Amino acid sequence: MKEEVLTETINIIKLASLVAGKPVSSGKQLYINNPYNGQLVGTVEMANLSDTQAAVKAALKGGTVLNRYERYSILEKARILLLERKEEFAQLITAESGLCITESTYEIGRAHDVLLFSAMECLNDDGQVFSCDISPNGKQRKIFTLREPLKLAVAITPFNHPLNQVAHKIAPALAAGTPVILKPSEKTPLTAIRFVELLFEAGLPPYMLSVLLGNTKDVAEALVQNPEVDIVSFTGSVVVGKRIAQTAGYKKVILELGGNDPLIILEDANLDLGVVLAAEGAFRNSGQRCTGVKRILVQESISEEFTKRFVEKAKEYTSGNPADPQTKVGTVIDEQAAIYLENVVDKAVAQGAKVLLGGKRTGALLEPTVIINVPRDAQMVVQESFGPLAPILTFKDIDDAIQLSNSTAFGLSSGIVTANMENAIRFVKELQVGTVNINEVPGYRTERSPFGGIKDSGLGIKEGVVEAIKCFTYVKTFSMPW
Ligand code: NAP
Hints:
Blueprint: H1 2-8, E1 13-16, E2 18-19, E3 22-23, E4 29-33, E5 40-45, H2 49-61, H3 68-84, H4 86-97, H5 101-122, E6 129-131, E7 141-149, E8 153-156, H6 164-176, E9 180-183, H7 189-201, E10 209-211, H8 217-225, E11 231-235, H9 238-247, E12 252-256, E13 262-265, H10 271-283, E14 295-299, H11 303-314, H12 335-350, E15 354-357, E16 361-362, E17 365-366, E18 369-372, H13 379-382, E19 389-395, H14 398-405, E20 410-411, E21 415-417, H15 421-430, E22 437-438, E23 454-455, H16 465-471, E24 473-481
Parallel strand pairs: 1-5, 8-9, 8-11, 9-10, 11-12, 13-14, 13-21, 14-19, 18-19, 21-22
Antiparallel strand pairs: 2-3, 4-5, 6-7, 7-24, 15-18, 16-17, 20-23
Helix pairs in contact: 2-8, 3-5, 3-6, 3-7, 4-5, 4-7, 5-6, 6-16, 10-11
The site of NADP nicotinamide-adenine-dinucleotide phosphate has 31 residues, from α8 and α9.
């Protein structure tokens, strides 16, 4: 009864791809179903190749050029509108992604910060001055820098943070004054389109933003390969990211790809802290975070005690109806993804691993799963498993932990739990990753700070509002006798 009440509150939403604010009319619909109960959440009118070309044309044609204060005002107004519609956005995220409502609400807070920090950056001067009379070869001149917007950015986003990923691409681009064409995930397009509508309501000129859903060849690939596009900013899987790297041609490419992050718990750690961080890192957002804890590495001497306490903690992460505020872990994105994860667990068990908790699947809902005795070459250790799996592995000493941590193709982030500063510094120096968080989960960040991975997790180019704005601009220098 309770479930019926919770799901009936959402009406079917009919949206369309928008070319510079105008809805397309291809006659082809994309259907989005709730991963938990299969109900139709909404439809999106899809774009075709000529819509893609029209979006590029509209952005390049341009329109009212916004000054810094105008860009600030639009982002600030969008921030306030988002806060006013927090509830509505949270329900939409939950309905189309299966993320539980507490996670969706948390995500609104993150997107709010992205808007706040992007608005703030509009007001910051970003030029530099270089005096030229500082060496024997110098002259009485000065060189000045200023940042110019790019003429067109393409942003391609994944499903796992339906709002925040979109905000992280669009808001910094708009702060820079760069027009954007957004291609959100076809699994979670409704939140993305609603967010675009909100930006128009906040005063954004239509030419500055288009949002397109459509088949890969006519939209995503056509945009990636278009020589008029200055930058492709992509967040998603390694396979698609590497394909983009091969096909984009002569343009900037930002790739934020998969992860396989370790949480490394040393014998000197505060064990209770280690237990909390492991559970939060592995199970939050249904385990679907690029920086989720995908491997829990525990020093042998404390592994028995850690495992005992961790299993008790994991029991608190109840899975169920994502719309229920009591639920801590919603579904993964669809049943296919849940079946994939189930198989990954079965394969590890066939290699000698043991499931201590969870593992049961109902449709797209997979219980938080704790697994021990996981071999170091198991698929869930070597590859990325995007779901609420918590494999525990043990290590002998710090050398072994560093070797094990660095042994996969990924290099996104990491968390170290230790009370010893010398140990902490060794990990900071020796882990091959984009981020090392001491006594925090790998995913800890602010929306402003630099973020991004190396190896298969990315090209080492950072996002986060401040760095992303740099990506969406180029630096022009000019010099004068002075
Ligand atoms: P995905 O399958 O790679 O899809 C991401 C986006 O790429 C979607 O919009 C998708 O469109 C589009 N796409 C598909 N084929 C394409 C092509 N040939 N050319 C251009 N674009 C194409 O990733 P996902 O399954 O949505 O997301 C999960 C992955 O994202 C995980 O690996 C996760 O680790 C990663 N991720 C990384 C970060 C980070 O910051 N490093 C953050 C979040 C997530 P369709 O939906 O239409 O297929």
